[in-house]
Amino acid sequence: MPVKIRLSMIGKKKAPVFRIVAIDSRKKRDGACLENLGTYDALKSVLVQFHSDRLDYWVSQGAVITDSVKKIMKLAKRTTQEDVVVEKVEKKPKKVKVEAKSA
What we know:
By secondary structure, this protein is α+β, with helices and mostly antiparallel strands. It has helices at 52-60, 67-78, and strands at 3-9, 17-24, 35-41, 46-50, 64-65.
Protein backbone atom coordinates (compact mmCIF):
# COMPACT_ATOMS: atom_id res chain seq x y z
CA MET A 1 0.00 0.00 0.00
CA PRO A 2 1.69 3.26 -1.14
CA VAL A 3 1.33 5.87 1.60
CA LYS A 4 1.68 9.63 1.09
CA ILE A 5 1.91 12.49 3.55
CA ARG A 6 -0.36 15.15 2.01
CA LEU A 7 -2.96 17.83 2.72
CA SER A 8 -6.66 17.23 3.29
CA MET A 9 -8.97 20.25 3.25
CA ILE A 10 -11.24 20.90 6.24
CA GLY A 11 -11.87 24.64 5.87
CA LYS A 12 -14.32 26.61 3.79
CA LYS A 13 -13.89 27.80 0.22
CA LYS A 14 -12.39 31.21 1.04
CA ALA A 15 -10.99 30.23 4.43
CA PRO A 16 -8.82 27.19 3.71
CA VAL A 17 -7.57 25.09 6.61
CA PHE A 18 -5.79 21.83 5.92
CA ARG A 19 -4.97 18.67 7.83
CA ILE A 20 -1.60 17.06 7.23
CA VAL A 21 -2.44 13.37 6.93
CA ALA A 22 -0.87 10.00 6.19
CA ILE A 23 -3.14 8.46 3.57
CA ASP A 24 -3.19 5.75 0.92
CA SER A 25 -2.18 7.48 -2.32
CA ARG A 26 -5.16 6.00 -4.18
CA LYS A 27 -7.73 7.63 -1.87
CA LYS A 28 -9.55 10.89 -2.57
CA ARG A 29 -8.22 14.19 -1.24
CA ASP A 30 -10.68 14.17 1.65
CA GLY A 31 -10.93 10.39 1.98
CA ALA A 32 -10.38 8.31 5.09
CA CYS A 33 -6.83 8.81 6.35
CA LEU A 34 -4.53 6.45 8.21
CA GLU A 35 -3.39 9.09 10.69
CA ASN A 36 -3.83 12.82 11.27
CA LEU A 37 -0.38 14.41 11.66
CA GLY A 38 -1.27 18.08 12.11
CA THR A 39 -3.14 21.13 10.85
CA TYR A 40 -2.16 24.10 8.70
CA ASP A 41 -3.97 27.45 8.38
CA ALA A 42 -3.33 28.70 4.85
CA LEU A 43 -4.57 32.26 5.38
CA LYS A 44 -2.20 32.93 8.25
CA SER A 45 0.57 30.67 6.89
CA VAL A 46 0.81 29.16 10.36
CA LEU A 47 1.37 25.54 11.25
CA VAL A 48 -1.20 25.24 14.02
CA GLN A 49 -0.31 21.76 15.27
CA PHE A 50 2.13 19.13 14.11
CA HIS A 51 3.45 15.74 15.29
CA SER A 52 6.99 15.50 13.91
CA ASP A 53 7.71 12.17 15.62
CA ARG A 54 4.79 10.53 13.79
CA LEU A 55 5.94 12.06 10.49
CA ASP A 56 9.37 10.49 11.04
CA TYR A 57 7.68 7.16 11.73
CA TRP A 58 5.69 7.24 8.47
CA VAL A 59 8.74 8.28 6.45
CA SER A 60 10.68 5.37 7.97
CA GLN A 61 7.83 3.09 6.84
CA GLY A 62 8.25 4.32 3.25
CA ALA A 63 5.70 7.14 3.03
CA VAL A 64 6.33 9.82 0.39
CA ILE A 65 5.98 13.48 1.39
CA THR A 66 4.28 15.69 -1.22
CA ASP A 67 5.82 18.97 -2.38
CA SER A 68 3.17 21.11 -0.67
CA VAL A 69 3.85 19.49 2.70
CA LYS A 70 7.61 19.93 2.20
CA LYS A 71 7.06 23.67 1.68
CA ILE A 72 4.99 23.86 4.86
CA MET A 73 7.73 22.03 6.79
CA LYS A 74 10.30 24.59 5.59
CA LEU A 75 7.96 27.37 6.71
CA ALA A 76 7.60 25.75 10.12
CA LYS A 77 11.37 25.55 10.58
CA ARG A 78 11.87 29.23 9.67
CA THR A 79 9.12 30.73 11.81
CA THR A 80 7.30 30.00 14.99
CA GLN A 81 3.71 30.98 15.62
CA GLU A 82 4.80 34.09 17.57
CA ASP A 83 6.99 35.31 14.69
CA VAL A 84 4.19 35.41 12.13
CA VAL A 85 2.64 38.85 11.75
CA VAL A 86 -0.65 39.08 9.91
CA GLU A 87 -1.06 42.36 8.07
CA LYS A 88 -4.34 43.49 6.61
CA VAL A 89 -4.23 44.87 3.11
CA GLU A 90 -6.56 47.74 2.33
CA LYS A 91 -8.82 47.19 -0.62
CA LYS A 92 -8.76 49.63 -3.49
CA PRO A 93 -11.96 51.62 -3.89
CA LYS A 94 -14.13 50.51 -6.75
CA LYS A 95 -14.20 52.72 -9.79
CA VAL A 96 -17.57 54.26 -10.50
CA LYS A 97 -18.66 54.02 -14.10
CA VAL A 98 -19.70 57.35 -15.55
CA GLU A 99 -21.93 57.16 -18.57
CA ALA A 100 -21.63 59.98 -21.07
CA LYS A 101 -24.95 61.51 -22.03
CA SER A 102 -25.43 62.20 -25.69
CA ALA A 103 -27.02 65.52 -26.69
